[in-house]
Amino acid sequence: MADRFRTVEEFLAAQDPARRAEVDVLRSIVREADPQLVETVKWNSPNYVLDGVDRLTVNAAGRGPVRLILHFGTARAEQAGGGSAFDGDPDGLLTWHSDIRASLTAPAADDTAARAATVEVIRAWLAFEPGA
């Protein structure tokens, strides 16, 4: 897939206002969870890197809700349909796609409880090391 966007600003400019608002909510939550994450563009979306590893990616493609994908980049093998050892989601916000990849939808901008829960899930994910 060819890179359509070179910067996050280009990505944001291409979004309609409602979609951009959802993306901005997730970007804000990610920054709150860990301000040290490096924001890049990968897979034509805002992507967040921790210690050189892609860990979070915004998915605003399609017509469904904007989602945040929690993952370990492409270097680590994943097992589709495999259970995960991750236990940092007490509210069940995550939808699992493999043993090391899950997603969550952007909470409503004014839902402070959902925002706080999302921040905590992201923090737990960033501290998670499968197999450790």
From TrEMBL:
Gene3D superfamilies xrefs: 3.90.1150.200
A Pfam family that the UniProt record links to this protein: DUF1801
InterPro entries given in the database record: YdhG-like (IPR014922)
Domain YdhG-like: 19-125
Designated name of the protein: DUF1801 domain-containing protein
Originating organism: Agromyces mariniharenae
The organism's taxonomic lineage, starting at the top: Bacteria, Bacillati, Actinomycetota, Actinomycetes, Micrococcales
